[in-house]
Amino acid sequence: MSAALPDYAAWSATCDTLHAHTQLLGKLTAALAPAEPRFQHGALRLGARGWETAALPAPNGSGRFMVGLDLRLHEAYVEHSLGDGARVALAPQRSVAEVTVELLDAVARIAGEVQLDLAPAEVWWSTALDRDTQHRTYDQAAVEAYFGVAGEVAQMLERFRATYPGLCTPVNAWWGSFDLAVSLFSAAPLQPAADPGAGGSLTPDGSLTPGGSLTPGGGSRVHGGADEGAAPPAGAA
Predict the structure, then answer these.
(1) pTM for this one?
(2) Cα 159–162–165 angle (5° rounding)?
(3) Residues 101-106: contacts with CB within 8 Å, 24+ apart?
(4) Minimal CA–CA distance to 170: which of 65, 66, 69, 36?
(5) Is the dihedral of CA 165, 171, 177, 178 positive or negative?
(6) Residues paired with residue 221 on neighbouring β-strands, in sequence order
(7) 40: nearest Cα among 237, 235, 217, 228
(8) How distant, in Å, are the alpha carbons of 179, 184, 235 from that of 136?
(9) Strand order in the sheet with 183-185
(10) Which of 119, 183, 195, 230 has the maximum number of C-beta atoms within 10 A of its C-beta?
(11) Which tens digit of pLDDT belongs to each residue from 173-198?
């Protein structure tokens, strides 16, 4: 791996700010994308510019739009299929609250208003994103270093999943745990459960039936990150 992250202690405050910005993208996609099994509709992607949503249906029915974080130009952006767009600066001392309010205003203007629960998910702080003035540290050099490493990891996971013959997810960027992951499903039967009355098996699409359990060495699920996205994080909608 050619890229290298800065020491975590040196960039942890910036990491928390960036994590909070990804949560707004995640809440938009979880609220607007058509629901999919294992909360796949709620996942983000790491693209060529940074974290981004898929194309989402505009709430006002005008077409499709996407929202992303450009980690090279250090801007959050909204882009509409009709050509409209907006950009919001990501800069030192710009709080999460400022960016959230400005970005949601841009979404409302370009694609229509969205009602969201802005409480953060899976993090140690609890202040709603549109009121979070605590997180404002944003070291652009550290963000670029992180993005370089994350891009290399995403490519490794993409090569890993490309050789797998069974069902697998895309390389997902999970905004609750702030990580990258891919899940592979073999559809192989599970080993017998310890309780004969609580047996279970994997369905052909790789999902676990009630009463089953994943056993070590069962070959039922492998993933390349710490989060499989099997259930929506708290406060996702």
Answers:
(1) 0.79
(2) 145
(3) 101/130, 103/24, 103/67, 103/76, 103/78, 104/24, 104/130, 106/78
(4) 36
(5) positive
(6) 185
(7) 228
(8) 21, 37, 22
(9) 167-168, 183-185, 221-223
(10) 183
(11) 999 999 999 988 876 765 655 544 44
